[in-house]
Amino acid sequence: MTRPALAFGLSAVLTLAAAAPVLAAPTDATPAKVLTQGMPSIPGPRRTIAVGNFDLMGPAATPSATNVGGPIAALMETALSECDCVTVVERDAVAQIINEMDLAKSNVTTGSSAPKPGNMIPAQYLVVGSITDYTASGAATGNGGGFSIGGSTALTLGGSSGDVAIDVRLVDTTTGVVIKTFKVRRKLSSMNVGLSSSYKGIPVATNGFFNTPLGDATRRALTDAVLQIDQTLAAIPWRGQVVKADGGQLYVNAGAEAGVRVGDQLTVERVGETLTDPATGAVLKQDMMQLGVVTITDSEPKYAVGSYKPIATGDPARGDYVVAQP
């Protein structure tokens, strides 16, 4: 991954008010999890999802602010991986992966393990967003200085309060349609002080950070976002594609690693008429024609094979869709 490193080497000094509980910080050898709770499972095969850009806008986007979008996007990717309900595919390091493919193609690198074009798993969905608020203000004891995302000091607070707010968009990569938009917001309020300095003004993602009010609010906001993504995907039918049609057998481009199991029944569909916006080219509607049903008889790690039963005229072909209803 090429996103900004998460372990920024912050030294954290956590002082709590007498009434506040003391949180035991995990060691650096045991990184804290991003998610604060488990996620419901999504029925059917696993969806593939990638995390795109998160930008900084709104009150936090001051002229001196450093864009915290990179670290937040990285935390989102980690949170989605932790939920174990989707398959997260890498997109931030694609340029490096393509470079490795070019080296193999030019015979600079050799061997059966060399990356080959066409082997990357496509993302069915893309998560992008905007951080619209990422602030804390000090109220309090001593000098009680405020928090600034663009400053060199992470927190110098007696009592702190503020907001973490993120606008999230879930995009269908097949059509480019935004299928879900939502905002997650978490307020922070605590009597913590500490955190001496930060990396380029971004105090994000050390274990000590997660025990600060801002860190806790960030984790909870990302947990809320992953829960909404989970619930949205659970209501959408999973779609794979036909790799090969061989008589009464179909090969599907997802297998055991994606949760396709022997006995699963998938509807085989073909795109009929597609309506697009003449001004933008955006897909407005796709009419799907049902061709038949494939019952999975063998599920290998990367692909599955099944017996095909037609329900309409027309033979299935490479590129047709297979659909599992939620």
| Shape category | elongated
| Element order: H for helix, E for strand | EHEHEEEHHEEEEEE
The CATH superfamily of the largest domain is known as ABC-type transport auxiliary lipoprotein component
The number of distinct β-strands equals 11
Helix/sheet category: alpha+beta
Low-pLDDT runs of 5+ residues are: 1-28, 139-159, 191-206
Question: How would you portray this structure in words?
Answer:
The longest helix is centred in the C-terminal third of the chain and has 22 residues, at 213-234. Helix content is 16%, strand content 33%. The protein has helices spanning 69-83, 94-105, 207-210, 213-234; strands at residues 47-56, 86-88, 125-138, 160-172, 178-190, 238-246, 249-252, 265-276, 283-299, 304-310, 321-324. The strands form two sheets. It has a six-stranded antiparallel β-barrel. It has a five-stranded mixed sheet with strand order 2-1-3-4-5, covered by helices on one side. It is an alpha+beta fold.
SSE topology:
Blueprint: E1 47-56, H1 69-83, E2 86-88, H2 94-105, E3 125-138, E4 160-172, E5 178-190, H3 207-210, H4 213-234, E6 238-246, E7 249-252, E8 265-276, E9 283-299, E10 304-310, E11 321-324
Search tags:
alpha+beta; elongated; Rossmann fold; six-stranded antiparallel β-barrel; 2 domains; Thrombin, subunit H; 326 residues; five-stranded mixed beta sheet; 4 helices
